Amino acid sequence: MINAPSLHVSDKSFANETNDGLVLVDFWAQWCTPCKMIGSILEDLDQEFSHKLKIVKLDVDGNELTVLKYGIMNMPTLLLLNNGEVIDKVVGYRRQEQLVSLITKHL
Fold first, then answer.
1. What is the rounded CA–CA span in Å between residue 31 and residue 75?
2. Are 18 and 56 in contact (CB under 8 A)?
3. Are 5 and 35 in contact (CB under 8 A)?
């Protein structure tokens, strides 16, 4: 499992990159200010949880199939998947300690 907060997935690569282990998916858009704010937090989390969690980003613009499949309506939306199945969801900006709690409750 490659851990990189800058690992961008698309409709084509989503299933392959999210079907093994614990994966946090960041649904974001370039024009979304809260998405940009959460980006640095995700980089920190990637370092903190690098051996337990994979973090990927999906730009909602241009990846409508995945957005529709998961019913993403607001950004940022973070999905926590375990072996491809959604186990938790957060919509909107969250502080780092809130995201740490989200992750640790599923480890």
1. 10
2. yes
3. no
Q: What is the CATH number of the domain that holds 31?
A: 3.40.30.10
Residue 68 near residue 12 (C-beta atoms within 8 A): no
> Model confidence at 3, in pLDDT bands (50, 70, 90)?
very low
Residue 1 domain flag: no
Q: What percent of the chain has pLDDT over 70?
A: 94
Whole-structure pTM value:
0.93
CA distance 47 to 28: 20
Residue 44 sits in which domain range?
Answer: 8-104
Report, as residue numbers or ranges, the catalytic residues. 32, 35
Q: By the 8 A CB rule, do 38 and 77 touch?
A: no
